Amino acid sequence: MKEKRARVIFCDFDGTITVNDNIVAIIKHFDPPGWQPIVDDIIAQRVTIQDGVGALFRLLPSARRAEIEAYALDNIEIREGFSELLAYCREAQIDFYVTSGGLDFFVYPTLEPYPIAHDHIYCNGSDFGGEWIRVTWPHPCDAECASGGCGMCKTTVMRRFPPERYERILIGDSVTDFEGAQLADLVFSRSHLTKKCRELGVPSVPYETFNEVLDHLKNMPSKQT
């Protein structure tokens, strides 16, 4: 008899768990000269995510750390249905991982009220020790990453869960989710990710709130090995 594969969810943070993209919101608000071409290059995949995000934060002085952190946390809005999705995952014994291209100074404080263990949260780090903010990369690409330069490599995390044992579910919205979508058994997409999935021929389920994700998960059968 075939065994059911364990479900595991890999969920993006910026623009997914949160309504807004916090990196872009921070950069827009503090408006350092030269940021818009960098953002355009990231979205168009003319530069790697690591190079682009690193370049964006090098435009911001470390001396404004308190302002930047306060702005980020004050303006974060959690997408509807997030708590309900987490409750369902606990009930259904679905491992839930946050795989974020965001930075620790706003990812961890935002998720603190929710029942997500720190070792289930992957994001980039930040260093305010120099004149300009430096992004650090504790979760780099492995040798199998097709793109390289991801910063926080979502496919590297996903490959730790072999497809013969796990039904891998990705929830995302943007350029940082493109490669992971091609590994997943099921993709929930919005915004740039929906468009890219169409281009790649990757089936996806569009969503706007986590209530839609939750309804779909409750009604889908488990896949077997």
Automatic annotation (TrEMBL):
Give the reactions, separated by semicolons, that this protein catalyses. 2-hydroxy-5-methylsulfanyl-3-oxopent-1-enyl phosphate + H2O = 1,2-dihydroxy-5-(methylsulfanyl)pent-1-en-3-one + phosphate
Gene Ontology MF term list: 2-hydroxy-3-keto-5-methylthiopentenyl-1-phosphate phosphatase activity
Q: What class of enzyme is it?
A: hydrolase
Pathway participation: Amino-acid biosynthesis; L-methionine biosynthesis via salvage pathway; L-methionine from S-methyl-5-thio-alpha-D-ribose 1-phosphate: step 4/6
* Domain of life of the organism encoding this protein: Bacteria
Q: Does the keyword Transport apply?
A: no
Q: Name one GO biological process term.
A: L-methionine salvage from methylthioadenosine
Enzyme Commission number(s) from the entry: 3.1.3.87
SUPFAM superfamilies linked: HAD-like (SSF56784)
Keyword hit for Amino-acid biosynthesis: yes
- State the UniProt keywords alphabetically: Amino-acid biosynthesis, Hydrolase, Methionine biosynthesis
Outline what the protein does. Dephosphorylates 2-hydroxy-3-keto-5-methylthiopentenyl-1-phosphate (HK-MTPenyl-1-P) yielding 1,2-dihydroxy-3-keto-5-methylthiopentene (DHK-MTPene).
> What name is this protein filed under?
2-hydroxy-3-keto-5-methylthiopentenyl-1-phosphate phosphatase
- Species assigned in the record: Paenibacillus sabuli
* Source species taxonomy: Bacteria, Bacillati, Bacillota, Bacilli, Bacillales
